[in-house]
């Protein structure tokens, strides 16, 4: 065999050996590299990462490990599942016998145990002890930078942008006694308007998440907090807890209530019970039920103990969101409305709404200027500032009226038009107290002169 032939055989053997190494080595090393990579991911994120496999190790053109059906779990429960995981490794680290992750990409990531929600693509970039994560999902993005310590992952900064909402701050995830997240949002804005700042403390467990406190402070001086237990039941999400709120100002407002929220594929429901809203010596109590199926429906039973007439617009402002619901059942009781030394007592409002039509079943006053009053009718609600009673019946004391009435508030001065008739004489005297008798007619000059000229009797 000539020298040239020997060199060709040696070169061919080397090429075949290298090709065999490129083709066979990944299959032999994939499991071992995955074991080391999952340990590195757990150390960097404080989450246990597992995969159903099979694992694929790619040597060229870059060193990359891929896995399918990946699950990341927190120590105390909860986690996420991804369709695929791709890990870019450092060749120099692997040559030195260690796994150094440069970048990890999770595709179609979903939070475990929650109802169907849009998936996210997550990219993790490792730089020493620091990790930068970017999650992109339908309608928004979350970006954070953090570092792992003994039993804690500290988020030095995060930035969330979703559907007009923007928030940024810091957080910490601990796993020594179950997984616990403490988050502080130094800035919260919606649509470019500053909302304030917030804080969240939540503990994760196998059966759900305990929201210790989710608080918000607004620039207007409003402080609100929610607390309770969130869990997954029958494929849906449920929350049971409460809320507290305090608004400072010339007329401070204090509110508290119990919350019960449930979401599933067919319906969303929010029930607010044990409502207690106090302001300016008045207290509003009751319950509200909101149900979202094909359309939003609201059922409310409320009671206001007393209110000054000057504060009625503020009370109407509280009820305005309810009155805007297209399917509504409202029962409101007001103990007393007072103004300028007068008062209306025992007020009852019973109202239902379906679309643009509202039925005033009853608006009754036990005592209005000393007489009972009652109104009922059918109301057409237009998009503009206009109301029209197609049918209306009024009763005040012994007087009765029926017909139509419309009110237009578009101009500087409200315009009211009424066509009301009474089946019997109204008897206006019943509305007014009798007039006092007129004083005697004063003496005129002519009468005084005639009296002076009259002959006097002896």
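-> sequence recovered:
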């Amino acid at each position: 065999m000539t020298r040239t032939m020997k060199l060709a055989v040696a070169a061919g053997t080397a090429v075949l050996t290298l090709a065999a190494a490129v083709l066979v080595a990944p299959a032999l090393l994939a499991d071992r590299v995955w074991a080391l990579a999952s340990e590195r991911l757990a150390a960097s994120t404080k989450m246990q990462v597992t995969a159903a496999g099979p694992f694929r190790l790619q040597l060229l053109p870059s060193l990359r490990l891929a896995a399918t059906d990946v699950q990341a779990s927190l120590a105390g429960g909860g986690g996420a599942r991804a369709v695929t995981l791709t890990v870019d490794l450092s060749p120099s680290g692997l040559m030195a016998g260690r796994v150094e992750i440069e970048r990890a990409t999770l595709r179609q990531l979903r939070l475990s145990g929650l109802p169907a929600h849009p998936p996210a693509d997550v990219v993790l970039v490792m730089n020493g002890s620091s990790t930068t994560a970017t999650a992109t999902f339908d309608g928004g993005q979350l970006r954070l930078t953090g570092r792992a310590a003994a039993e804690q992952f500290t988020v030095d900064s995060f930035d969330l942008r979703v559907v007009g909402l923007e928030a940024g701050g810091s957080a910490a995830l601990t796993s020594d006694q179950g997984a616990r997240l403490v988050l502080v949002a130094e800035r919260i804005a919606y649509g470019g308007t500053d909302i304030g700042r917030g804080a969240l403390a939540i503990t994760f467990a196998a059966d759900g998440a305990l929201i210790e406190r989710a608080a918000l402070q607004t620039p207007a001086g409003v402080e609100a907090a929610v607390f309770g237990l969130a869990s997954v039941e029958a494929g849906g999400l449920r929350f049971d807890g409460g809320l507290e709120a305090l608004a400072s100002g010339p007329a401070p407002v204090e509110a508290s209530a119990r919350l019960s929220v449930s979401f599933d594929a067919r319906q969303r429901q929010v029930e607010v019970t044990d409502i207690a809203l106090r302001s300016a010596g008045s207290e509003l109590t009751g319950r509200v039920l909101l149900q979202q199926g094909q359309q939003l429906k609201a059922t409310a039973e409320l009671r206001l103990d007393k209110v000054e007439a000057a504060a009625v617009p503020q009370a109407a402002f509280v009820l305005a969101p309810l009155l805007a619901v297209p399917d509504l059942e409202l029962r409101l009781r007001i103990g007393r409305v007072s103004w300028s030394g007068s008062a209306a007592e025992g007020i009852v409002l019973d109202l239902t709404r379906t679309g643009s039509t509202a039925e005033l079943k009853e608006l009754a006053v036990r005592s209005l200027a000393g007489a009972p009053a009652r109104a009922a009718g059918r109301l057409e609600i237009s998009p503009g500032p206009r109301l029209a009673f197609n049918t209306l019946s009024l009763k005040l004391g012994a007087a009765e009226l029926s017909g139509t009435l419309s009110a237009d508030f578009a101009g500087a001065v409200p315009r009211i038009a009424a066509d009301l008739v009474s089946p019997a004489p109204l008897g206006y005297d019943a509305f007014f107290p009798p007039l006092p008798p007129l004083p005697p007619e004063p003496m005129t000059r002519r009468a005084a002169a005639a009296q002076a000229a009259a002959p006097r009797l002896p």
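Confidence is low (pLDDT under 50) at residues 6-25.
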